[in-house]
Amino acid sequence: MLSATSPEPLRRREFLRFGLTGFAGLTLPALYRLRAEAADQTQERTALIVVWLHGGASHLETYDPKPLAPSEYRGPYSPIDTSVPGLQYAELLPRQAAIAHKCAVLKSLVHTGTCHDDGPQQIFTGHPLQGRRLAPDHPDLLTIANYVRRDPKRTIPNYVGATPIPYLGPAYLGPAYGPFAVTGDPNSPKFEVPNIGLKEQAQERLGTRIDLRRRIDNFRRDLDKVGNMAALDTFESQAWNLLTSPDTARAFDLSKESDACRDRYGRNAWGQQCLLARRLVEAGVELIGVTLAGELCGRANNWDDHAVNQHVFDALKYRTSFMDQAITALIEEIHERGLDRRTLIVIGGDFGRTPKINYAASTGGGIASGPAGTMQSGRDHWPSAMSFVFSGGGITPGQVIGSTDLRGEHATERRVGVQDFVATLYHHLGIDANNIALQDFSGRPIPILQNGKPIPELFGV
User: Fold this and answer.
1) Confidence label for 236 from pLDDT (cuts 50, 70 and 90)
2) Taking Cα atoms as reference points, which of 423, 443, 427, 412 lies closest to residue 124?
3) CATH pick for 38-197+245-459 out of 3.40.720.10, 3.40.50.1820, 1.10.10.10, 3.40.50.2300
């Protein structure tokens, strides 16, 4: 949840404190009120899960290996065959290689962003944003979808970030449409999601404060000519449902899963984040961002494998085992449970990495990084070629879209820009992006899509 004046997340403890001291301020009911300001629209109940490799994963060591490239480009890992004839992944992804027939791989996505801010901002807005900014000038696709699909009757958030994808945001739509943020390690025995399933004592305190405010408001009801007081009661009911609904609490409770299922995903943060995504989809959440970052990445806590951060090949070897298991389990379960027709899984990151390997002195030791001063290999930012994987959502699986040159430097076939990428996700969500415009802060209508078209190969067009 983003605050109205800062890109920094509102701390959950602060949010709960605000809720327990009264619902008349800008807390959850106020956010629900913002959601209800426009008319409801009926949408097909499709879902989208974005698994985000924060920092930008190397395409050469994942989905687009280049075994014939010169040694100064080629990494130490060999390609392996997948379940799709002719398609190879890097050897670091054996589990995903075995289920490649359930996926489609796009190898030719490009954009013009050069940093971790404008890369994802371009990818999820379609706008040619460049330069450092903590949040985009235009709302991202997930936020817009949350706005378009708003339903004040919901008792569970429709957009959940576990954890939210960095550098995205609602911009002029306002914080009401940002993600319900789930942070922390869901594999920890102490993990919990604040502000859902409040204990009985907290519910009583909250109820007492709401009753007190309602008594005061009763004095004003006779003066209310437009029904604002009744609407406020509705917003408070929605907030109450979110905070006390056992169904909502159950959706976030991983202890409801068997040990075998939890083991399948991996008993680590990434595995349990992906398991949570599956549970949320089953519970009716339609927009989910899963960010794979933190300690499982190695010393730098992300996929930003500059040589000064960490040894690129050691870091990839360390982290991909966790990532490969978690993503494979998510894809398999989405298909096994019959969720694949309505749920699209998208896997990718900020950009690719420089095909030519570089070397620099480490700035500090740790997992996958030598002591400070150690010369080690790295790959830098590379927006000219990157790979994204799609699964579910009714796409045509078992195919490769686009290709890059011998060194993995540039898209040479079926070059896809961010406008088409965004259009593809809107198409899956049933949003007519070509005919929707949103007003910015000045009241000017801004089309949510300029000229992109869905990637036709994905949908058999």
Assistant:
1) low
2) 423
3) 3.40.720.10
